[in-house]
Amino acid sequence: MGMRSLMAVAVVGLIVALAFTPLGIEAQQTRRIARIGFLSPSSPSDPRTRTFVEAFREGLRDLGWVEGENVTIEYRWAQERTERLLDLARELVRLNVDVVVAATSPAVQAAKRATVTIPIVMTNAGDAVATGFVARIARPEANITGLSMMGGELIGKQMQILTEVVPNLSRVALLWNPTNSSNAPQLRQAEDAVRALGLRLYPLEVRGPDEIEGAFAAMTKDQPGAMIVLLDSMLVANRARIVELAAKRHLPAIYGLTDFVKAGGLIAYGPNVSDMYRRAAAYVDKILKGSKVADLPVEQPTTFELIVNLGAAKALGLAIPPSISARADQLVQ
After folding, report:
1. Which of 152 and 97 is assigned the larger pLDDT?
2. Coil, strand or helix: which one is 94?
3. How many angstroms separate the Cα of 290 from the Cα of each of 81, 98, 102, 287, 324?
4. How far apart are CA 79 and CA 172, in angstroms?
5. Of 31, 54, 80, 215, which alpha carbon lies 20 to 30 A from 208's?
6. What average pLDDT does the segment 48-64 reach?
């Protein structure tokens, strides 16, 4: 056998040998696809929900994660029935997802009960410390991190805006959902805020859609001059009805999400939620690349929006003061 023949045989042998080494086997295998669990109390048919999900997916794409290529997302929707969240969270745990993205406090609470090992990334959740999701903002313990609302500061600012918009305001009604773990801390923060402003607060519990009418009926005897609605997925899902009843009772109201103003509400002041979902993707990216939850501090909103509905103000006979209109990010006619 000639020299060239011997070299050819050697090369073929080397290729065959490499094919059966662990490295060769690994090269032949399909690259592992990361799996994300997405848990939400909302319905995917809600336009606002679709906007938030797309913001999250966009954030992932910007970081190199493309559905169907190197990541898959297991969506679980409670369809406004928060009592289903725990079972849905357990489904995700059984699927052994790499990380759970939990949208809103009820979803975080359910995910926390379902697993103590799989990392959980919060999006637009309530005050993470006050609700007991994390011990410290700077260095979360256990398996939860992500983005948390600034409860006390947000409500205090909303109350201040109401006093500027509504002349001689003295009584404020407050809609809240006691089944939402983040609403009780928000209520306490609201009580602190009204005391600081010399106002009186009238909290009204709304545990479900069928209690909304009764809460507004109860306002009649209290005769509040304005209303604040706490952040809650059930209340947001019923925003059109809440805005309608507030208008019918000629009641100025401020909300924490712009969706209420889009539904005809007077004023919204709160964080840019789409931005929070986009930023949640950065947490997922770091966790999938090996970062530990304890090394990822909880973030709070950095972008806030003030939107005023001038048409609603006119219907209520209110003149929006220059101090508010000048600060507004958007004035809706």
Report:
1. 97
2. helix
3. 34, 11, 19, 5, 45
4. 31
5. 54
6. 95
Residue whose structure tokens are 């109390």? 41
Question: Which uninterrupted H or E stretch holds 307?
Answer: strand 304-309
Distance of CA 29 to the CA centre of its chain: 37
DSSP letters for 7-32:
HHHHHHHHHHHHHTSHHHHHHHSPPP
Token reading at 201: 């607060």
Beta strands 226-229; 120-125: pairing state: unpaired
Amino acid letter at 128? A
pLDDT reported for residue 151 = 64
pTM for the predicted model, two decimal places: 0.81
DSSP β-bridge partners for residue 229: 175, 255
Q: Where are the alpha helices (DSSP H) in the chain?
A: 3-19, 22-28, 47-62, 85-94, 105-114, 151-165, 183-197, 212-222, 233-237, 239-248, 258-262, 273-288, 310-316, 322-325
pLDDT at 233: 84
Scored b (16 or more CB within 10 A) or e, 83-118 reads: eebbebbbebeeeebbbbbbbbbbbbbbbbebbeeb
260-317 pLDDT, tens digit each: 999 999 999 998 899 999 999 999 999 999 999 999 999 988 778 999 999 999 999 9
Residues whose CB falls within 8 Å of the CB of residue 17, separated by 6 or more in sequence, listed in order:
none
Tokens of 226: 């304005």
Strand partners, 308: 267, 331
Chain centroid to Cα 136, Å, comes to 19
Amino acid at 177: N
Q: What pLDDT is stored for residue 131 in this prediction?
A: 84
Q: What is the pLDDT of residue 24?
A: 43
Distance CA 169, CA 163 (A): 6
